[in-house]
Automatic annotation (TrEMBL):
This is Uncharacterized protein.
Length: 52
């Protein structure tokens, strides 16, 4: 079976597992993106668009 054929529903049914939603990281807070990172990603994006 190809990896792309797997779904959570199929695996749960075959293996008999159940899932449960949970807040795994409740104390995480968003951080601002440093300007140097934003600039670097912008430059790389332009370069990749030119290369195709």
């Amino acid at each position: 079976m190809a990896y792309s054929d797997f779904t959570l529903e199929k695996v749960s049914a075959v293996l008999g597992i159940t899932t449960q939603e949970a807040d795994l990281f409740p104390k995480l807070v968003p951080l601002s993106i440093p300007s140097w990172l934003n600039e670097t990603l912008g430059k790389r994006r332009k370069m990749m668009l030119k290369l195709g």
